[in-house]
Amino acid sequence: MDRRLLLLLVVLSSCWCCNARDLTVLQSNDKADALYLQEVTNNEDFCVLCEEFASEALNYLTLNKTQAEIVTILHKSCSKIPSFKQQCIVLVDYYAPLFFLEVSSLDAKDFCRKVNLCEDRISKSQELPKDKCDLCHTVVAEALLKLKDPDTELEILEMLLKACDSIGKNAKKCKKLVFEYAPVILINAEQFLETSDLCAVLHACDSAAVVTKEVSLGMEASMHASS
């Protein structure tokens, strides 16, 4: 158990504290401490260090050898309370795997943001396209392709039929309505998207861009249909 154990303890203690800034402000009446902590949370160097150490600690925790060592230590701790030793061991064997599973899903960057050592930043890949008109038409085109796909229609019907099962004695009537009206609704939805400029209705495109997008959308739909 080397310095990685220290990193492990730092990660665990931070998880339990949840929020470094709030905890310190609550425990200390010293405004200087609060101001210092504010500087720390806004310091890029601390953010980088947090992500680096947290990543190393999390990787260490996911190793089978590490997990076995931790379970062994906990079992030894159970031996110190003879009257509850067996129950203690059972609890360790049950909860330890759940804990390791939870740890394996943690992300170093998300962890550092949650403890306020890194500021929330929207990466370039997460930023919405500047041209929301393009984005809107892309979504509409994808929706049209989905509606034209028979497998998608079957998935929607299956979902609606399953929903009917949850209404008890009226389930048969519900399923009859689904079979009778769902195909019509899906066809109408497809026709609406093809004949109407939804993006213009939603004001995602200005009037100058509407005509251009309608032409390009029609060309894309025809190309997919022919392929």
From TrEMBL:
Q: Species name for this entry?
A: Salvia divinorum
GO-annotated molecular function: aspartic-type endopeptidase activity
Q: What is this protein called?
A: Pulmonary surfactant-associated protein B
Output the GO biological process annotations, alphabetical, semicolon-separated.
proteolysis
Q: Which GO terms describe its cellular component?
A: extracellular region
Query: What keywords appear on the UniProt entry?
Result: Aspartyl protease, Disulfide bond, Glycoprotein, Hydrolase, Protease, Repeat, Secreted, Signal, Zymogen
Q: Which domain of life is it from?
A: Eukaryota
Gene3D superfamilies (UniProt xref): Saposin-like
Q: What is the lineage of its organism?
A: Eukaryota, Viridiplantae, Streptophyta, Embryophyta, Tracheophyta
Where does the record say this protein resides?
Secreted, Extracellular space
InterPro entries under this entry?
A: SapB_1 (IPR007856), SapB_2 (IPR008138), Saposin-like (IPR011001), SaposinB_dom (IPR008139), Sphingo_Act-Surfact_Prot (IPR051428)
Where does the Saposin B-type domain start and stop, copy by copy?
43-122, 129-209
Give the protein's function.
Pulmonary surfactant-associated proteins promote alveolar stability by lowering the surface tension at the air-liquid interface in the peripheral air spaces. SP-B increases the collapse pressure of palmitic acid to nearly 70 millinewtons per meter.
Tell me the leader sequence span.
Answer: 1-20
